[in-house]
Structures are given as C-alpha cells and as structure tokens.
Amino acid sequence: MAQHAITSEPVRTNIPARLDRLPWTRWHWLIVFALGITWILDGLEVTIVGAIADVLNDRATLNLSPGQIGLAASAYLAGAILGALFFGYLTDRLGRRRLFLLTLVLYLLATVATAFSWSFWSFAAFRFLTGAGIGGEYAAINSAIDELIPARVRGWVDLAINGSWWVGTLVGAVATLFLLNPKLVPVQVGWRLAFGLGAVIGLGVLLVRRFVPESPRWLMTHGKLDEAERVVRAIEEENRRDAGLRELPEAKGEITIRPRERVGFLEIARTMMRDHRQRSILGLILMASQAIMYNAIFFTYALVLKTFYHVPAGTVGKFLIPFAIGNILGPLSIGRLFDTLGRRVMITFTYAISGILLAITAYLFTQGTLTATTQTLAWTAIFFFASAGASSAYLTVSEIFPLETRAMAIAFFYAVGTALAIPAPGIFGAMVGTRSATTVALGYYVGAAFMLLAATVELLLGVDAERKSLEEVAKPLSAEVAPQPV
After folding, report:
1. H-type alpha helices, 367-464
2. In 281-386, at which residue ranges do the beta strands (DSSP E only) sit?
C-alpha cells in the first residue's frame, strides 16, 4: 500500500489500544508542552489586557473609556467564537496537526498587529483576530491531546494543560510589573511591549510543534491506515526506548471501522442533538457557566481593584500573582482525583464549592469588610476549585462525543458558552463604573448561580469517562461494531 493511500473498506485495528497502553515518557511531556502552550498564551493575553485596562485610559496611549475596554474584550471573545467554529470544522475535516499550526500562526500575526494599534477600532479588530486564532486552537489542541494521551491519565493531564492558562496569567502579571511601571518603561511603549511578549513565546512554540505528529486516531477514521500505522510505530519505538523497555505491554482491544473522509453538518447536528442529546445539554451548561463566571470577573479584575481599593495600575500585577498561583495549583493538586474518584463526583464538587464561595465573597464585598488583599485571597480560594471545574468542562466536551465530530463538538460548546458570556465584560465593566458595591456584587451572585446550576446538571447527567478509552466513552461514527474495552 502506498504511504498515503486512502481506503474506504472496513478495517479492524488496535491503534487506540496501542496508544492507551503506552507508558508515560518524555514523548508525552513533549506533547503536553507543545500543545498545552495554547492556554498559556490565552492566559497571557487576557492578563495583559486586564492589567493594561487603566493604562489604555491614558491620553498618552489609546485614551479608551472603560466601556471601550469592555467592548474590546467582547471583540476578542467574538473572534474566539467564530474562530472555534470555522477552524473546528476544518480540524475534523483536514486533521489536527495542520490546524494547530495554522491557528498558532494567526495568533502570532494578530498579536504583533495589536502591539501597533493606533485607535480603539484597530485595537478591537486585532483583538478579534487574536481571539480567532485562540478559538481555533482550542478545538484543534483539545482533540489532539485527548487522542494522544493514555486513557488512565487523560483526566489529570487534560485538567493540568487547561489549567496552564494561569501560567500565562502569572507570566503576564510579573511582566506587567515591569512593563507598566512608568519609571522603567514609558507609558506609551510598555503596553505595546507586553503584547510582543506573547508573540515571542508563540514563535518558540511554533518551532516545537513541527515535531508533533498527526493524531493516529484521526488518520485511521479517514482511511489513512498506512500512515496511522507508521505514526504509531514511531511513537511506540520512542516510548519503548525512553522507558528503557525491551517490549511494550500487550495492547488489548480492537475496533472495526469503515473509514470516511468527511462528516456533513447535518450528521454532526444529528449526532449531537439527537443521538447524544443529554450529553449536549451537559456540555452546554458546563461550558456556559464557567465562561460567564470567568469572563464577568476576570476581564474587569484591574478595574475592580482600582475603583474600590484604589490600587495603582502599575501594581495590579502583585495582586494577580497569588490569584494565578491558586488557579494553577487547583488542577495540579486535585486533578488526579478526576481519574480516581471519577468525573461526576469531582466536577459536581468543584462547580458547587466555587459557586458557594463566590456567593459568600459577594456578600462580604457588599458589607465593605474586604480589602484589596483579602479580596484577592478570597478570589484565590474560589478559583482554586473553579479552575479545575472550568478545565473539566473542556475535558468533558472533548471526550464524550464521537471521534469524527470531536473538534466540532469542542468548538460548538466553546462557541455557544462563550457567546452567552460575551456581554459579561461590558455589562460588568458598566457595573464597576457605577462605583456601587451592591451593583457589582449582583454580577458575582449571577456567576455563583450558574456554577451551582452546572453542579446540579453534572450530578444528574454526568458521564463516567474515567480510565476508559475514547472509543468506549463514545463509539466512533465509522465503527461497525462496538469497541472492546481496553
């Protein structure tokens, strides 16, 4: 068979089982770093925009109003939505690898362009394009990660990677302490250099990603069995060598598939809305709830600190650092429980506890008992759990739908959830502008209510996907018989 020959005949293969039984090695760390950097870049972007919100008000910069800053954040989210849908479809159609390279290039170009913005409209337009690149990354990257990582650790790895969003936040917070300090860098230059930081990191990752292979699972369902076998054999040999083993464990479990080159929109809709209706409701609620909570609070974090606690723009980064650390530690420290105690138990718990803590914080905020420090500590505690919960939403939608629709499912739920949250930054910015603690707290209560709703839905409709192969969790559309358990 030619190297890139395509077949449409039924084929029995053990490729999924061979990938799931691999020992954890240096090769997996390469995948985690090369693909997981997406969330670091997104966290860096959001942190920079949040931290420079006050700086962009300055006449020496873009002289933006709080409302315009909120609209620019909404433009970023709108771009992420459209980018996720467009590139998500292409990811299922053309492959994971091709798209995670393309979307990263778009992000790089748009981020560099943002640094050269000259007005509100140019800033908003470049933020839109940056969001499109990041949105496309979510679909391509989550698909590739889940299809390459062994089932026994998929939950923890996925949460840790999604939680790395806050590594970007931490880097951005530290960077802004220097770049937004007018004593070190002129105010009209520092915010532009901050965006350049993301471009430099992204360029380095682009070079590393060239060594990440296409998903063998995607290749096999698209009839490229010879190429899938070649990729898997190379992965197996590298893992065997890195683990110091003479032979790898036996791969148990096969699946018979009839490869197909594409899946139409009607079949995607039928699969999600009819065949997996309850799973679709679950994914929508989880994604929307965490998006509303995060977008409402974090996009205006700097404005809250300035307006109610009179924190200077140049020192906002100090308050972001502990907040970011808490968000990083959440998925890392309790992430393994999602693979042991299970998805349903841990997702329900993390959503519920973060919602309860946010409601308590909202009450204390209205009573005027919090300071900038205690407010930050409260948010740190809340998002320790919320970070794991939000990451589990991406994990859920990436593993509970058939392989052929995985990227589109991720894109759809990310897009719908984010679309519902688009007004949040602008509305919450306007709430902060009233300088009324009671008005701002209302936004906190709404976020808390959505998190508690999501916890209830997970308890009722959650899927027990822990330590199961993707094909066992959701039978591929191309499968002719149900896969044997791995």
Report:
1. 372-399, 406-421, 423-433, 437-461
2. none
Strand partners, 277: none
| HSE, side-chain direction, 13 A CA sphere, residue 164 | 15
Q: How many helices (H) and strands (E) does the chain have?
A: 21, 2
* The pairing of beta strand 255-257 with beta strand 11-13: antiparallel
Mean pLDDT of 427-441: 83
8 A C-beta contact, residue 139 and residue 407: yes
Query: What confidence score (pLDDT) does residue 154 get?
Result: 93
Q: Cα separation of 331 and 35, whole Å? A: 17
Distance from first CA to last CA of the chain, Å, rounded?
28
Which two three-digit tokens encode residue 407? 């990227």
CA distance 69 to 292: 18
Tokens of 201: 């990191």
Q: How far apart are CA 194 and CA 381, in angstroms?
A: 28
Q: Residue range 396-411: average pLDDT?
A: 89
pLDDT on residue 161: 85
Given a cut of 80, whether residue 9 has pLDDT beyond it is no
Which residues lie closer than 8 Å to 318 by C-beta, 6 or more apart? 173, 177
Write down the H helix ranges in 180-300: 187-209, 216-221, 225-243, 265-270, 277-298
Indicate the SS3 state at residue 118: coil
Rounded to the nearest integer, the mean pLDDT of the chain is 85
Digit-coded pLDDT (tens) for 201-256? 778 778 888 888 999 999 988 888 889 999 999 999 999 999 999 899 888 888 88
Contact 162, 390 (CB under 8 A): yes
- Count Cβ neighbours within 10 Å for each residue of 281-311 and write b for 16 or more, e otherwise: ebbbbbbbbbbbbbbbbbbbbbbbbbbbeeb
Q: Which residue has the tokens 């358990």?
A: 485
Give dist(CA 303, CA 66) in Å, integer.
8
Residue 399 and residue 422: Cα distance in Å, rounded?
25
| Backbone dihedral angles phi then psi of residue 233, each to the nearest 5 degrees | -60, -40
* DSSP bridge partners of 127: none
pLDDT at 167: 84
